[in-house]
Amino acid sequence: MRNTAIQLAKPTILLTVTFAITIFWVSLNTSPQHRDPMSRSFILWLHGLGDSGPANEPIKTVFKSPQFRNTIWSFPSAPSNPVTCNYGAVMPSWFDIHEIPVTADSPKDESSLLKAVHNVHKMIDKEIAAGTNPDNLFVCGFSQGGALTLASVLLYPKTLGGGAVFSGWVPFNSSIMDQITPAAKKTPILWSHGMADRTVLFEAGQAGPPFLEQAGMSCEFKAYPGLGHAISNEELVYLESWIKTRIQSSSS
To answer: Which domain of life is it from (predicted)?
Structure first.
């Protein structure tokens, strides 16, 4: 608990993510994407607490394979809300978080979480209505965005191409399992977590695969020794290959 108090002493920077170190070499000068109803794939990226969508856009330049030539990317920004773990400070936040560090047993705020899930589902519905095959639609997120990714994929009524959780946690109780449809259980999950994470503890990440197995879902869990609460280039390169394989298998 003493470590928690130390972290809470700087409420305005908790759970924010900076990509300057991990992907500093990525160019920001990317050409704008134009929406094409016949695009082969769609990737929705959900940022962490206190961050913004535009700040994460350099991620897409890691995806250089030809399979991503027609990919539509979306980097939405969370609305500003008071956050309990930051003493009620108002900041970009998808849902409320009650304590830092996040552990496997941290309190869950399912009410605000489900509101955020509803908004993510509207984004997914809009893209599917525009012509994207659900099998080629991927939801990815870091930290709070990773927790929201998990909830959004599990509670979506259709099978999606995949969900990728980075440094996230299970943001709801086991009672939610009754709401997971058979179609949603077929969506593959990639879970990546740094073993040196002091903000969302590694134990919180480790609790993910057993939860998903209990729900009847598959999950690939990757642990990164020495990685703290951040995304590494190694994780992004693997994500590219993970999604690329699924685009190839679902596009024929």
So the answer is: Eukaryota
Rounded CA-CA distance 196/226 in Å is: 5
Give the tokens for residue 1. Answer: 């608990």
pLDDT of 40 reads 78
Per DSSP bridges, beta strands 219-224 and 89-92 are unpaired
116's tokens: 């955020």
143 noted as active-site residue = yes
Q: Which of 108, 6, 102 is nearest to 48 (CA)?
A: 102
**Is 197 part of the annotated catalytic residue set?**
yes
Largest Cα separation within the chain, whole Å, is 55
**DSSP 8-class letter at 45:** E
Q: Where are the alpha helices (H) located in 17-137, listed in sequence order?
A: 110-129
Tokens of 232: 């590494």
- Can you give the pTM of this predicted structure? 0.85
- Tell me which of 51, 96, 229, 232 is the catalytic residue: 229
Computed over every residue of the chain, the mean pLDDT equals 87
**101/187 Cα distance (integer angstroms):** 29
Catalytic residue among 93, 143, 192, 232: 143
Reported as a single tens digit per residue, the pLDDT across 123-165 is 999 999 999 999 999 999 999 999 999 999 999 999 999 999 9
CA dist., res. 165 & res. 155, Å (int): 15
